[in-house]
Design the sequence.
């Protein structure tokens, strides 16, 4: 698993970790039941505070991506495809919202925007 | 959650300095950074906490035991590292190991010798020949080899190069891999604390300004960059301290009370200290 943390990112470190682990789970590199490193071990490896890794794990647990078994550690939760799709959709929606806000600011209409999306979608 | 350190309403009156109502709580298993200018009360607090001076009011508890009531056996649960190396200069680390064995009931010779080897200390050289960094590594190795659960460091990393400081941070993070262990460290090198500390406590003029998680510090404070005109329009209760120059105003602010449309950068611990200590004097 790769966890890369950027100090210049506007996202807090715990969100960066959360996103990286989510990506790893979604891509299938971490499978259901796989054990995650302990919060303390991860903090030591990345040279960050334990509370930061704890917060990241808590967010992941809240999102249903991992489960914590007391005394044993954190494990990747059973894949909830519906949940993952929702999460993907939300990500795309957020990016689109940004694009629309930008378009609005520069007086680019919905038709033109739709066209742009189609071109980009097909092109890639 | 059990607390490694619990300080409540601590007061001390020195002839030229007063420590006023200090409250600090460090839960077990975490690292707390203790910051403040020279003479702000850090070393006084640490002296009281470790029972090396008597408080004039309030209480300090380590692992639930009042500092003044710590038995010799309970003192072994505390590892104390000061900026000066406490060992006789003429001894080498193998000799130090021999006499430490007789002082501490749970002295772990094997771990101490292994740590010293890992740090590249020469067994034949006496302490007097060690560099400042080597002496510090020796002190920390000794403090972690007698079964201590709470490690207290007073300015342990000052005057050391970034490489050695990084190794020391590694040692501390290693130490808290055991959830029973905690670290309380004072330092002027705020970037070190920013990396590894879970909690930050800031003391100024003998009073605690704040004691909270590092995440809370990040979300509470910000650096506002604006023009003098914009600055005048902002409610002063949202500003901690400001600094004006000919072209702009920089201010330490309560981040979430400043509306959108302003430039608010992340405030580093150094910014926070500077603005409280220096600009706060005016």
Sequence:
């Amino acid at each position: 698993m790769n966890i890369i943390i950027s100090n210049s990112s506007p996202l807090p470190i715990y969100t960066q970790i959360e996103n990286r682990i989510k990506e790893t789970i979604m891509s299938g590199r971490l499978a259901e039941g796989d054990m995650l490193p302990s919060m303390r071990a991860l903090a030591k490896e990345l040279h960050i505070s334990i509370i930061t890794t704890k917060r990241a794990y808590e967010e992941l647990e809240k999102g249903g991506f991992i489960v914590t078994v007391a005394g044993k550690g954190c494990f990747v939760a059973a894949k909830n495809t519906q949940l993952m799709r929702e999460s993907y959709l939300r990500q795309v929606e957020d990016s689109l919202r940004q694009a629309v806000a930008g378009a609005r600011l520069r007086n680019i209409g919905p038709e033109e925007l739709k066209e742009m999306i189609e071109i980009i979608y097909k092109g890639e | 959650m059990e607390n490694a350190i619990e300080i409540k309403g601590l007061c001390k009156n020195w002839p030229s300095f007063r420590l006023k109502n200090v409250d600090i709580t460090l839960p077990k298993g975490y690292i707390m950074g203790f910051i403040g200018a020279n003479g702000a009360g850090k070393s006084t607090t640490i002296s009281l906490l470790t029972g090396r001076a008597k408080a004039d009011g309030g209480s300090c508890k380590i692992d639930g035991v009042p500092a003044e009531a710590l038995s010799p056996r309970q003192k072994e649960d505390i590892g104390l590292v000061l900026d000066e190396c406490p060992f006789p200069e003429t001894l080498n680390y193998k000799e130090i190991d021999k006499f430490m064995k007789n002082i501490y009931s749970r002295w772990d010779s094997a771990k101490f010798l292994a740590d010293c080897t890992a740090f590249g200390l020469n067994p034949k050289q006496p302490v007097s020949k060690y560099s400042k960094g080597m002496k510090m590594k020796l002190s920390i190795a000794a403090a972690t080899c007698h079964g201590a659960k709470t490690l207290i460091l007073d300015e342990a990393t000052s005057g050391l190069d970034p490489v050695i400081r990084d190794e020391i941070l590694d040692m501390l993070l290693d130490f808290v891999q055991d959830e029973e262990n905690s670290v309380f460290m004072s330092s002027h090198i705020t970037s070190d604390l920013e990396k590894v500390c879970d909690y930050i406590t800031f003391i100024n003029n003998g009073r605690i300004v704040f004691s909270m998680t590092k995440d809370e510090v990040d979300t509470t404070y910000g650096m506002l960059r604006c023009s003098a005109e914009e600055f005048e329009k902002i409610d002063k209760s949202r500003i901690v301290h400001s600094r004006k120059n000919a072209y702009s105003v920089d201010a330490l602010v309560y981040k979430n009370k400043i509306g959108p449309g302003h430039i608010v950068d992340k405030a580093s611990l150094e910014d926070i200290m500077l603005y409280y200590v220096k600009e706060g004097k005016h």
